[in-house]
Structure prediction request, 1074 residues.
Amino acid sequence: MSSLSRELVFLILQFLEEEKFKESVHKLEQESGFFFNMKYFEEKVHAGEWDEVEKYLSGFTKVDDNRYSMKIFFEIRKQKYLEALDRQDKAKAVEILVNDLKVFSTFNEDLYKEITQLLTLGNFSLNWQHQLCKNPRPNPDIKTLFMDHTCTPSNGALAPGPVNLPTAAVSKPVPYTSLGAHGPFPPTAAAANANALAGWMVNAAASSSVQAAVVTASSLPVPPNQVSILKRPITPPATLGMVEYQNADHEQSMKRLRPAQSVEEVTYPTVRQQASWSLDDLPRTVAFTLHQGSAVTSLDFHPSHHTLLLVGCNNGEITLWEAGIREKLGSKPFKIWDMQACTLTFQASAAKDAPFPVTRVTWSPDGTFCGAAFSKHLIHLYAYAGPNDLRQHLEIDAHAGGVNDIAFAHPNKQLCVVTCGDDKLIKVWDLTGRKLFNFEGHEAPVYSICPHQKENIQFIFSTAVDGKIKAWLYDNMGSRVDYDAPGHWCTTMLYSADGSRLFSCGTGKDGDSFLVEWNESEGAIKRTYTGFRKKSAGVVQFDTTQNHFLAVGEDSQIKFWDMDNINILTTTDAEGGLPSLPRLRFNREGNLLAVTTADNGIKILANATGMRSLRTVEAPPFEALRSPLEAAAIKVSGPSVANVAPVSCKVERSSPVRPSPILNGVDTMARSMEKPRALDDVNDKVKPWQLTEIVEPVQCRMVTMPESTDATNKVARLLYTNSGVGILALGSNGVQKLWKWVRNEQNPSGKATASVIPQHWQPNSGLLMTNDISGVNLEEAVPCIALSKNDSYVMSAAGGKVSLFNMMTFKVMTTFMPPPPASTFLAFHPQDNNILAIGMEDSTIHIYNVRVDEVKSKLKGHQKRITGLAFSTTLNILVSSALRLEHRHMGEEKVSPDTTACGKAPNGDTRVQFHADQVRLLVTHETQLAIYDASKMERIRQWVPQDALTAPISCAAYSCNSQLIFASFCDGNIGVFDADTLRLRCRVGPSAYLPQAVLNGSQAVYPVVVAAHPQEPNQFAVGLTDGSVKVIEPTESDSKWGVSPPADNGLLNGRTGSSSTASNNHAQPDQVQR
Prediction:
């Protein structure tokens, strides 16, 4: 429609509005699609006129336009269906089910089945709501679906009673119920159940500024009556506006269309399975004692290295222990990294009081960072990239007075640090030291914090030394609850490992200790555990494990409880020597328990499984333990956190890169070697290390994607979906295929697995995701692909235009960047899906803003086509690689003109991928694997093909936790390497995953690409030259790919480091300049 016609429509709308022709106004709004009248839409929603709501909305978007429109229409039709059931009008409900809801069965068949089953319930409201009660009573009085129902326990175990929230603490109700809640019944206003923890969590979505999924009228920055919307737009800016991009303008414009959960994410209450257990499951046997040398104040096991223990001490020292070999891997004495950046108040006290005791140490959920809080002002963060690398990352002058607790959290999917202190505040920081939130409300020093997430709501529990417990959302709107902990003094709160049960433990001022479980639905105590005998002079500590046990250190012993029984289960004094109030910590598996001793040591207790794990732990290579790579620390003080500069990543022009110190995992420099001490209680000799060889199909688990084999269409690119439920392959012919795993009894998680065959997924329309290949020579084209963070959209190209596909409908939403030059690599900015880095055939890199369809900048410097791109949010850089072995690192907007190639080798694709710490960089070329420190572009490790793996490397990728590297080779072999040392730990031969007919065929078949599962560290997928895609995992009994090789003889696979160096001189790098 022309601009003149649009203006005419606007004038007509204005006239009709002024003349009060209301029906005509809304009819023209709908038919033209020019104005979305939010006020009118609200009125119809409040009135429950769902047919009119859907009719009006259909003028602006259709059901299958995109993911968000589908969710909105689903909510409208679901509401109609639930109201029909509530009225007992089953005929109408069946009509809605068949005519309106059937369309959604294609995308979530399980959900449709669940909805259909509601028709069979005699009393819908009773059966549906009552099953959610944690303490259901018989014959409850439930009259309607739309009133929140909970049963109060009848055994009188509730003390204190339900808490009445102050009016100011209750979040404001939204104008109408959120359209995004796919729970069993819609959330009600906060006032409906102000004293229930579940109530404030349900309503949190309406008020939290970081819960990016709420439909509210008030979030729109437009005139109150009308919103300008293009009718079913096809131009790039409007189309791409549907993507969940973290852009301020976009956030405001899209809040009205962003529900809280996708259809695929619906969950229903399940009955907790009672697993069998015995006392032998508890780690009660003393394995050995570690001698720390200073009083231990805090302990924490690594989340995935189950024998790696982080220890904080009274003298301010941080120590990393490998319990399996009883060795200190490293120790960080107390030191203020940058005194001048601290506040003057702190500088004055530091001079006379240092060193400061550690109050808490903790690991991040993925184990890539650890944090320490101190008794005065400071927190320290360390980046952990392996046992050889605990590096100073960040120092923050966080609180006035002591910092009493530190924890990691993921608000808005961003890893952050939460702290609390004597200044009565809770603060949230990002990993650059910028303060994101400052929570005020406690009237006493804050003692502990407990960040958690329930469904899509993220929050923090906090406790203060006056016994007050509060809960906070990430929105600076005050606490949501305010109630008293037993004992009214120091209390710590913890969730069970599965996040379903909440416990607290603490001590009152009179010395009485309490261990309780909370009923979140009622905001009250569910059960109080008994067994504390003596009054304590300090505060008792506790931990949970295996979703079944509680442990408390009290009376110079460890006391255990079954979570479901208030009576004490058993105790142990750990062979004596414990302090009156020992500190304790389970490892993630629950088979080890670290306990502090009275003589400044740590006892490691284990069950039978833990004992076996300790005996089989491999000693880390000597150089990995003794040669840490130190990096400059970032220092941030409290008052200046808003102006943090990015990390410097400068390499001096005159400074050549030092020769790679580690080649094929062997230190080529002369250095003394130590053999690690053996465990005293191990009588059997340790077997010589052998490379794990997987050569038979029975030695691993493998599944081939159905309908994937096509000898004329090799797999060019391969991705897991970010949710881990599917695999996306781009073929050399430009066609993309998607496979999804279904949640069922064989695969209850619904995640990708080699144990279950997935479905080749296509929409009902039968559309294929086919790229533009008009005029393209497919033999010369370089396919490329990138997936949005929410798995809703995929961008790809195969020598032609870049296409944006809707992952639900497979429709092409838009195309851009027509050749020449052709696009050869795509990478989304990790923090903004609007920003796309596009590597081009002509060696340039375009920084493209998708939302406004504009190239923001063009980066130059390479000589050949771009083959790899990787963003680092920590270093604030983009690293690129080109056809020759050359890579550059550049700022987000420009490249330094002085940057030149940092290495040369035979022609071939070079790929780059960042380690989870966002500093180390994996560089893959057919001739080598290399690890770089990207902050200085120095190569620190290198591996070249040799021995069992001599063929050229076709692809390599980090595992999801960056502890392994999966590399594929052109002869069909797959190598699994230790990511810290680049030592080969397992070889998967082609005979393990290829059929005999393929092995005997005349055409060589081998993996072209490899991809790592985003959550399972030992699962990977390969795309082969015959078009097939396979997912491969270790057997369930092995659970991992071999073990790390020792370094006690300076050899690897029978070859010395020097011989490897001599045979690969061509791969040594040139100088790096910047």
The mean pLDDT is 76. The first strand starts at residue 35 and ends at 36.
